[in-house]
Design brief:
Elements (H helix, E strand, L loop, with lengths): L13 H14 L16 E3 L2 E8 L5 E2 L2 E2 H14 L4 E12 L4 H18 L2 E10 L7 E10 L2 H11 L19 E4 L5 H11 L15 H10 L2 E5 L5 H13 L2 E5 L7 H10 L13 E4 L4 H9 L8 E7 L5 E4 L5 E3 L13
Parallel strand pairs: 5-6, 10-13
Antiparallel strand pairs: 1-2, 2-7, 3-4, 5-7, 8-11, 8-12, 9-11, 10-12, 13-14
Helix pairs in contact: 2-3, 4-6, 6-9
């Protein structure tokens, strides 16, 4: 039987990872880039230019706390920023479905413009296509972006080297070492549950809102404190997928403390009702941060002084005691936190 693409192939879990590794990398890659396609980091690096391309097919186009336009801009900016780079400019490719109301397009474009203003980055080129009605959901947006090295990244690396060896020029998934502490900047699962509520018309008895926001200014603030070795925005596949990528690429174990992981009460209750693990739900305004232990309290304090980081917590540490991601539960037991097969909420980004 001919194998065909399913929704799971785009969901950010192990099925998507297999698709990329067995098919995309089979045909593409092979460049001499400093951080090439094969690294599967959040962005690539060539000639000190950080480059990222991202497509967004969220359904519906508008949801509590955001929309496809805000998502497209913030998602690309965040993928550049977590490499330690300063975002410089974006492109925008619009694929519009026949029948999309012009008023909706104007609303999306204004949201993109407002998000760009928040981040201090402009869209400087792009493309627009229209396709026949049927299945697209209104529109799909591709945003690409470039970033550059900056003084904050250099200061951060100098600070890291005061405490341990550090042989890379960028903030990468493969940089964790045993003893490094792991911080999450805020509550998990908000975006995925907000989109699911809009998709299915659920009313969870409270206003669950997406966390979608550009994080480049927050990240520059933290780099100036210094001591950061790894960063990642836990989007598709959530915290579980992101930490398993770190563990695999850095060849270290990760111990998480369940009681320290911040999840809003209404999000947790909704996940329990739906049989969803909030640690596998995608986020669009949170960042995972790996920090040398000597700087972790300074980073946490700086985070908590901001609106985006007021709920930040130290949730675990890298270890050489085992090779997997292990969750220490609230009752004191331990279980392996495996990467999800796919995101339990489809088309969240």
């Amino acid at each position: 039987m001919m194998e065909r693409i399913t929704m799971a192939h785009g969901a950010g879990g192990t099925v998507m990872a297999d698709l990329v590794k067995k098919h995309v990398l089979k045909h593409l890659g092979g460049s001499a880039a400093e951080v090439p396609l094969e690294a599967l980091d959040d962005s690539a690096v060539i000639n000190d230019i950080v480059l990222k391309s991202d497509s967004h097919a969220v359904k519906p186009l508008f949801f509590s706390g955001g929309d496809i336009g805000r998502l497209a801009v913030a998602g690309t900016i965040n993928d550049i920023a977590v490499m330690g780079a300063e975002p410089v400019a974006l492109t925008s490719g619009l694929v519009l479905e026949e029948g999309l109301p012009i008023a909706d397009l104007d609303r999306i474009l204004e949201s993109m413009a407002e998000t760009c203003r928040e981040a201090g980055v402009h869209i400087i080129t792009g493309d627009t296509k229209v396709v026949e009605k049927g299945g697209l959901g209104g529109c799909v947006i591709n945003t690409s972006g470039i970033g550059r090295r900056n003084d904050a990244l250099e200061r951060n690396i100098v600070e890291v080297k005061k405490h341990r060896s550090f042989n890379t020029r960028w903030i990468l998934d493969s940089n964790l070492k045993p003893g490094d502490k792991i911080i999450v900047s805020g509550t998990l699962g908000d975006h995925g549950l907000a989109v699911l509520s809009a998709q299915e018309g659920y009313n969870f008895g409270s206003q669950i809102m997406s966390d979608v926001t550009p994080l480049n200014n927050l990240i520059m603030r933290l780099l100036n404190v210094g001591g950061i070795v790894a960063m990642k925005d836990p989007t598709r596949g959530g915290l579980s997928n992101a930490l398993n990528e770190w563990s695999e690429k850095s060849k270290v174990g990760i111990l998480l403390h369940e009681e320290k992981i911040p999840v809003r009460g209404d999000v947790r209750a909704a996940c329990e009702m739906l049989g969803i693990d909030p640690l596998e739900v995608g986020n669009e305004g949170k960042v995972l941060i790996g920090v040398v232990p000597e700087k972790v309290e300074e980073i946490l304090t700086s985070l908590k002084e901001t609106k985006e980081g007021k709920d930040a917590q130290i949730i675990g540490e890298a270890t050489e005691d085992f090779s997997e991601v292990v969750l220490e539960t609230v009752v004191g037991g331990k279980r392996i936190l495996a990467p999800p097969i796919g995101d339990p909420v489809p088309r969240i980004c």
